[in-house]
Amino acid sequence: MSVERIRTVVGHVVLMLGVLVSLFPFYWMVVMASNTTPDIFSYPPKLWIGSHLFENMGKVLDNIDFFGSMLITLIASLGVTVLALFFDSLAAFAFAKYEFPGRNLLFGLLLATFMIPTQLSLVPQFVTLAEFGWIGSLKALIIPGAANAFGIFWMRQYAKGAIPDELISAAKVDGAGFFRQYLTVGLPVLRPGLAFLGIFTFINVWNDYLWPLIVMTDPNRLTLQVALDQLNGIYGTDYSMVMAGALMSVVPLIGVFLIGARSFIADLAAGAMKF
Amino acid sequence: MPSESAVTSKAVPAQEVTATTAADKPPNRFRQALPQYAAVSPFFILFAIFGAFPVLFSIWISFHSWDGIGNMTWVGLEQYNYLLSDATFWKTIGNTLIIWVLSTVPMLLLALVIANALHNATRFRTFYRIAYFIPNVTSVVAITLVFGSIFSNNFGLLNAFLQSIGLGQVEWLTQPWGIKIAIATIITWRWVGYNAIIYLAGLQAISADVYEAAKVDGASSRQTFWRITVPMMRPVILFTAVTSTIGGLQIFTESRVLFGDTNNIGGPGDAGLTIVSYLYQSAFINNQFGYGAAIGWALFVLIVLFSIINWRLIGGNDDERLTRRAARRVERRIAAQNAKRAAAQSAAAKETADVR
Q1: ipTM of the complex
Q2: Is B42's CB within 8 Å of A119's CB?
Q3: Where are the transmembrane segments (chain A) (predicted)?
Q4: What pTM does this model have?
């Protein structure tokens, strides 16, 4: 009994140490963002939260168009999320619940696209979008990601288990067509799955750095991540300000994550097990 | 919407009528499936424009010398020829692989330890899971800036700590190994929790009966781990190995942001220049689009190669068979154990009967 107890305590100590390591960089971000740069660079360094947070945040707003960048990032993230949720769940509904000629072939093709690294088509994608005249516009951020293979694959796995065939048959008997069935039977049942996919997509787009770096060429219309990097590149000597910017860019994201954290984590793990 | 439902309501009796004449059936099946085709088409249309076409186009671009604006000049395999003899390219492969090993090995081992501890913990589980997962959903740029300051040569927290315990300073962000360790640390920190959660799900999928049986068998905890946990976890380990290989070969943001210098994105001596950084630098800074496309293809070959190696190494091809075999082995042992116990019991019963 006591051996068991010691083991539990040791387990918790290990886990707590891990949690400290996981969360420390965030604490450090706050410490740096709330002190002055000379304070951070003094020896020994300041380890506690200071009183200059708002001053540093003000400097960020003076030096980059923070809210403009945030708005662009928000529109892009929401745009991709809404479109992807619709297109992915619609396709997943069809793949999961309907027999149609070529279904397996099309689904196999979709899975095969996982193999292609995005970097492979970076150059020609840029050229294509330039040809469309989309470089520098929100379209370049939103449209290419509006439907994605991972989302369809994941939603299909979810839909297979979640939607009872009887419900679809009943809707058919009532004379509902395919899209009516999707709206009345599919969507309500798929809601928890959509919540996960929505958060997942939103976070990914919000955090993306390489693609916006390439396509958002207008220095006045940068996404948050690129703007943050620019802030660092130009004002890298003012660490406190850069950290205040970093903090401001991270807080909304953690907020979105925490809202659905519990089921989000469970869903992600379940999704990985299905591969 | 109404016209659509009209089609289906008409189509249903039509199918019943034509069921006898097989010749009419095929076109109807396709026509009936029109809404389904419409439902799956957005992905395929977008993929054709932004996925398939660019991939094919990138082969074409890689056979040319092109700055993205002027004329394309056909050079055949010259880009690839140059690539093979380009010392910087080989260096980026070396850098990427070193960073990948430095990050993936500790990451997966630590994840396994954490998952095990989480599996055994009965309290604070949700709190732990969220705390371990937060690094993964955080902005890479922001967190790289934080780590950049921690690893900073002169005033960084890490050096201040090393100095205070009398170990002196390390020039993390100027030494080739320091740079790679810094990048690997960021990656490990971001992905440990993610992988631990995946492993935890794998652990929880293993039935408690199997462990119970092993315990009855008198298996030590080490034997249980290697004979039951690891084989049963094989598919999950394969998943994490493949995803972290693909992710590891595509490292870009960490090294780009760490040095914050548009002209020298790999840091001093290009020690942190990864394959994707080099692709980015060639195509979008030096405007050598053809060369950038060629690097993209080299990256693709590497990813396929390493995925196959992973698959072979961890035995993904027959992982199901292996798990089943492990499960069968356990079952057999339980049966043998039960038989032995039954035999012992009946022998004991016989003995007592004999004694009487």
Answers
A1: 0.87
A2: no
A3: 9-28, 66-93, 105-126, 132-154, 189-206, 241-265
A4: 0.82
